[in-house]
């Protein structure tokens, strides 16, 4: 099938940044009932930048490959830069245009990462002055 390009299969079979972070990491889980994909992202910020990000999950090749590529893509970025990553960037990473059904799969990791970013920013305690 044309949709499953080598790059997608590679990330699906050998996901980058697989696992979960401990300690002060923020963890967010989302799922996509229409396909059965689920993903948990854990994220650690340091000075407003993504110091570390990992994910685990279960789902179709598109959802897992998208998560793997996105975690690689935003590692080290500032929260501001990571929050502007959008659908077009995901399509570019995957190297394919997505049908409506597949779009939900591909964007699930992005939504999960976004929420983790927002939660991380929220839970960061104000520094004593
Ligand atoms: Zn899916």
Automatic annotation (TrEMBL):
GO terms for biological process: iron-sulfur cluster assembly. Residues 4-119 form the NIF system FeS cluster assembly NifU N-terminal domain. It comes from the Bacteria. GO terms for molecular function: iron ion binding; iron-sulfur cluster binding. Transmembrane segments: none annotated. NCBIfam families: SUF_scaf_2 (TIGR01994). PANTHER family: IRON-SULFUR CLUSTER ASSEMBLY ENZYME NIFU HOMOLOG (PTHR10093). This is NifU family SUF system FeS assembly protein, nitrogen fixation protein NifU. It comes from Candidatus Gottesmanbacteria bacterium GW2011_GWA2_43_14.
